[in-house]
Amino acid sequence: MLTALLTATFVAAPAAGRPAAARPAGRTAPTLPAQVPGATADTANGCLACHAAQRRAATEGIHAEHGVTCVSCHGGDPAAVTLPRGHSGHFVGTPDKAATAELCGSCHSDPDRMREYGLPTGQLAQFRSSKHGQLLFGQHNNDVPTCTDCHGTHIIYPPYDARSRVYPTNIPGTCASCHSDPKLMAKYHIRTDQFAQFRNSAHGVALFQDQNFAAPTCVGCHGAHSELPPTVTEIASVCGRCHVLVEQEFAKGPHGAAARAGKLPGCLACHSNHGTERVPADSISATCDRCHGSDSQVHQFAVDIQHRVVQATADIQSAERAIDQMAAAGERVGYYRFRYKSGLTYFREIAQKQHRLNLDTLDDLARRVRSVSIDLDSRAKGTQESRWEHKLLLLPVWFLSLSAVVLALLALRGLRKRDRDSDSSET
Ligand code: HEC
Ligand code: HEC
Ligand code: HEC
Ligand code: HEC
Ligand code: HEC
Ligand code: HEC
Ligand code: HEC
Ligand code: HEC
Ligand code: HEC
């Protein structure tokens, strides 16, 4: 009935601006994946005549821009304006999740097709090996995402387009649409707090507030297509992809060895994966005590580390105040600011190098910060003293100028008086 109705409507359609001559002659039913047709969607795409809901997809998004049309994915006859001819040939209706991944992969895993765009071709292979792919292909589980859950189906934007669901600031929300769903995740006994934790973490703040796209979104640690939780021995290298210097120092120390042996959860011994935070200077030894205990040999060592970090923090803050004071006094601070910057570099190195757990290195750096701080402090004090001296020196100058003004006034009065006297003597 519906078919008959649609047929009736669209048999008449060619007369209304769809000349039969525009039909590509001798076109065979496309095979899947079809070649990207050269013709533009609106002249050859009969599908749109019936599927008005997908009309926008024919002009918007990365696929439309590159000539991927309805038939590239669904097959059928794009020149037909009737059913069942429109759906004839190798027609693919609505593919299920697994078939969708294969469909997208039919182009995106093909190096010959993707070469001209410089796109990687590993998405489907990586997806297969991920937890998501294992469940989808191994157990036909439809709770996991397929390509279109993360990218959209008909209007797909590239990851660098802010409208894309995989644009950096949108990724956590895309993952959270499932991972923060308590009913869905209860089935798998996984927690649902990853996004909530991440939002307030050092990484989340850098990403959302500072728009710092060097910070990891969920996929910075899990991979965009290969999602698996990193295993204990992998964690340090996952974080080390970005925190290169920290990881190098960590690897050289006793904790690096323990992590490689699987005895320590890498960076997560002291930082958390989703709520990633800086360990505050004054709670370093408490952090170590969690594993080593407050009566262990390590405890005193931890207190020593904490002492150096706390002292260096106070030193760098006081150096900063000194610079501010000098600037407020109108001193030229160019050179001293340079000194301060070098102190700041040593200070930052402390935070990185303490991961090696070597006190000598820390002592050396802490001393350098100290010396910058002492230097700038004494300079700032000098500035203030010389300001006072300056003011004292000015006293005689003030005295002399005031005297000059008073003398001038007196002289003026004398002159006026003489003038008046001579005036009255004339009348
Ligand atoms: C004459 C109108 C008409 C034309 C032309 C047409 N379709 Fe359809 N299409 C329909 C109708 C009506 C339905 C829903 C009923 C059905 O499932 O058969 C549908 C359903 C579909 C579905 C969903 C099928 C499913 O099983 O879930 C897809 C996908 C589809 N069309 C793609 C296309 C493509 C691609 C073209 C062009 C090559 C096209 N259609 C041409 C009318 C049309
Ligand atoms: C890049 C591949 C691709 C292209 C191009 C594409 N589709 Fe689809 N389409 C799919 C997939 C995959 C599904 C299955 C549903 C899902 O995964 O969201 C689907 C589902 C559909 C459906 C049924 C469900 C729904 O969303 O209504 C229709 C109808 C449809 N497509 C029509 C079209 C038309 C018309 C065009 C051309 C404008 C088109 N498609 C272009 C991949 C594509
Ligand atoms: C007929 C071949 C073909 C099929 C099938 C196909 N694509 Fe594409 N895809 C392309 C081409 C061509 C581009 C354009 C490449 C470019 O300019 O970056 C593209 C681009 C993309 C991009 C943007 C990549 C970037 O960084 O620029 C994404 C994301 C994407 N496709 C996802 C999908 C998904 C998801 C599916 C399945 C629903 C799919 N594609 C099916 C050919 C295809
Ligand atoms: C769980 C979500 C998710 C799924 C499922 C997914 N992608 Fe992606 N995809 C992403 C993210 C996120 C990016 C952005 C890459 C980044 O930030 O490193 C991306 C990027 C891409 C790109 C751009 C090039 C690249 O590799 O960076 C293409 C093409 C692509 N995906 C295709 C696919 C295909 C094909 C499938 C299915 C086999 C798929 N994606 C499944 C999340 C997903
Ligand atoms: C369509 C829903 C859905 C979306 C979207 C989704 N996931 Fe999943 N994810 C699941 C399900 C279901 C599981 C299976 C849970 C299990 O078996 O452990 C899973 C498993 C995982 C696992 C393995 C957990 C474990 O302990 O084994 C990780 C890691 C993961 N997802 C990360 C992500 C990331 C990162 C994103 C976004 C880029 C994402 N997921 C998007 C549904 C989803
Ligand atoms: C800084 C790196 C990092 C970021 C960012 C990150 N994860 Fe994780 N995630 C991990 C690590 C490491 C594990 C494994 C923890 C373990 O083994 O104890 C993990 C575990 C998981 C798991 C398994 C269940 C669990 O909670 O232990 C899921 C699901 C998951 N992450 C999803 C996400 C989602 C969703 C996001 C984004 C909102 C995200 N992750 C962001 C590092 C990260
Ligand atoms: C994709 C790169 C990337 C990955 C992977 C990554 N981080 Fe980060 N991390 C950053 C960026 C960028 C910042 C923000 C720096 C800033 O704002 O100054 C940051 C900040 C931090 C901070 C706070 C530093 C501060 O000064 O406040 C800690 C701690 C941290 N990350 C630990 C980790 C841990 C632990 C892991 C692994 C579980 C990890 N990171 C994985 C890029 C990354
Ligand atoms: C998550 C638990 C954990 C935390 C927290 C932790 N450690 Fe360790 N630490 C270990 C493990 C495990 C080893 C390896 C012990 C072995 O190989 O027998 C180790 C080894 C060491 C060693 C080598 C000497 C020894 O006793 O084996 C030192 C020194 C050390 N840790 C100092 C620290 C300091 C300082 C902190 C705080 C900044 C800290 N640890 C925090 C678990 C931890
Ligand atoms: C034994 C505990 C411990 C472990 C294990 C640990 N960290 Fe730290 N991390 C700290 C402490 C304590 C600080 C703060 C030091 C300071 O303020 O000077 C810190 C600071 C940081 C910072 C801030 C550095 C900066 O430049 O300001 C980053 C980033 C970081 N850690 C990343 C990591 C990574 C990556 C790993 C694994 C390779 C790791 N941490 C392992 C205790 C640890």
Can you describe this structure?
25% of the residues are buried. Helix 17 crosses helix 18, helix 19 (284-292) packs antiparallel against helix 20 and helix 20 (297-328) runs parallel beside helix 22 (359-426). With 427 residues, this protein is an all-alpha fold. The longest helix has 68 residues, at 359-426. Among the domains are: 157-229, no CATH class; 230-277, no CATH class; 297-418, no CATH class. It has helices spanning 2-11, 41-44, 47-50, 62-65, 70-74, 97-108, 111-114, 123-129, 131-139, 147-151, 171-179, 182-186, 194-199, 202-209, 218-222, 235-240, 244-252, 254-260, 284-292, 297-328, 334-353, 359-426. Residues 236, 239-240, 243, 246-247, 250, 255, 266-267, 269-271, 278-279, 281, 284, 287, 309, 348, 350-352, 354-355 line the site of one heme C.
Please write out the topology.
Layout: H1 2-11, H2 41-44, H3 47-50, H4 62-65, H5 70-74, H6 97-108, H7 111-114, H8 123-129, H9 131-139, H10 147-151, H11 171-179, H12 182-186, H13 194-199, H14 202-209, H15 218-222, H16 235-240, H17 244-252, H18 254-260, H19 284-292, H20 297-328, H21 334-353, H22 359-426
Helix pairs in contact: 8-9, 17-18, 19-20, 20-21, 20-22, 21-22
Bound molecules: heme C (9 copies).
